[in-house]
Amino acid sequence: MTHSTDVKKLTQWMAADFSNQPQAIENPPFFAHIQVCMRPLPKGFQSGISLYLEQAYFYELNRPYRVRVLHFIQRENDVLLENYRVKDEENFYGAARDRPKLTSLTADDLEKMPGCDILVEWTGTSFRGKVEPGKKCIVNRKGMDTYLDNEFIVTEDHMTSYDRGRNPATDKLVWGSVAGPFEFDKVNRFANEVEM
Ligand code: CYC
Prior knowledge:
The chain is mainly beta. It is built from three helices and 13 strands; from the N terminus they run H-E-H-E-E-E-E-H-E-E-E-E-E-E-E-E. It has a single domain, classed as Beta Barrel (Lipocalin). Keywords: Lyase.
């Protein structure tokens, strides 16, 4: 990645409301119908560009089960994506689709998730993200520690996402899709809200 505009292109492509509805209709036992909405935070929120993320079942969009802030940092050969939890996240539920509600969010509300930085590279036709190596991004599921094994691909119109949790000792799959990646299309776009 050589152009300083790439972090802008990446965030413009990711700033959208994504749905996997076709996949959920085709393969209901394996894929729940979910939406992932990533909304640009105002310029100056953190250095560079940040997106507020809500991940929810389609039937309860205003009660997301994962809320994060993604902070994008342009580096010489790639983009570093820091992953943050939001304290008292219930206060912000719904803000991904209600931008005025996002203005009360500040950097003090964030808690960085150690080991969960993601490295994003330009492949020539898409962006590909993967968690930093070393099994350091620990996700506790039902009392058991797992490490994140993920990959996502973003193009202008589509996002493919493959998040799984594995047992640190055996590498066995503990959570995540056994039927392949989630395939998301855009149902709304917020590219014009990305400022840098
Ligand atoms: C976990 N997903 C995670 C974690 C990271 C990412 C860092 C571990 C720490 C955390 O809970 O935040 C990161 N995954 C990403 C990023 C993208 C991605 C940056 C690109 C937007 O796909 N996560 C998604 C998918 C969806 C998903 C759209 C379906 C595959 O963004 C699922 N990710 C998912 C789940 C967890 C997770 C269910 C575990 C959360 C938990 O059980 O606490």
